């Protein structure tokens, strides 16, 4: 079987009920790679050749054929959920995570970052409440570009 090459995601797809749903599970980093190979849960090998800058989201449809369609599922990953109690703690967490160039997601009063043993150690040392858990991680996307002087 030849590898399917996918060059664009499908916006507003029409998917007949009779089609089989084929899922490709991607972590947060893979959802940001426009060029990569992946394997679906059914063993179908696909090659993504998406436009530069494409970021895939949970539920994005990549292909619709005669008998099946391919959809992205965001993988649940190990993350650290940080629960700062004060503005000072929030600022300290922002400094520590930013200094390590770690991606973050902000959900209300919770800050998420991919699990890292070193980060866990810093949070323990600082006495900042956190919890290790598994969930979909979707980092904040910045519009600008960060450059060190």
Label this structure with key terms.
single chain; 149 residues; alpha+beta; HSP40/DNAj peptide-binding domain; Alpha-Beta Plaits; 2 domains; 4-stranded antiparallel sheet; 3-stranded mixed sheet; 15% helix; 36% strand; elongated
Structural class: alpha+beta
The N- to C-terminal Cα distance equals 50 Å
CATH topology title of the largest domain: HSP40/DNAj peptide-binding domain
Major sheet: order of its strands? 8-9-7-10
- Total number of helices: 2
Overall shape? elongated
How many whole angstroms does the radius of gyration measure? Answer: 19 Å
CATH class of the largest domain: Mainly Beta
- The ordered string of helix (H) and strand (E) elements is EEEEEEEHEEHE
How much strand content do the residues show?
A: 35-45%
Query: Could you name the CATH homologous superfamily of the largest domain?
Result: Urease metallochaperone UreE, N-terminal domain
Unreliable stretches (pLDDT < 50, length at least 5) are none
What is the average per-residue confidence, as pLDDT, rounded to a whole number? 92
Helix content: 10-25%
Oligomeric state of the chains in view: single chain
Largest sheet: 4 strands, antiparallel
| Overall structural domain count | 2
What's the CATH architecture name of the largest domain? Sandwich
């Amino acid at each position: 079987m030849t590898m399917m090459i996918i060059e664009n995601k499908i916006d507003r797809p029409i998917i007949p009920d009779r089609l089989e749903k084929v899922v490709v599970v991607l972590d947060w980093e893979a959802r940001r790679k426009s060029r990569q190979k992946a394997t679906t849960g059914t063993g179908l090998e696909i090659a993504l050749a998406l436009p530069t800058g494409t970021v895939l989201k949970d539920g994005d449809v990549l292909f619709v054929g005669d008998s099946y369609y391919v959809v992205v599922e965001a993988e649940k990953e190990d993350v650290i959920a940080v629960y700062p109690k004060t503005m000072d703690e929030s600022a300290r967490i922002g400094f520590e995570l930013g200094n390590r160039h770690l991606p973050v997601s902000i959900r209300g009063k919770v800050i998420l970052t991919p699990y890292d043993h070193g980060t866990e150690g810093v949070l323990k040392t600082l006495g900042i409440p956190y919890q290790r858990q598994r969930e979909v991680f979707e980092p904040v996307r910045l519009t600008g570009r960060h450059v060190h002087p």
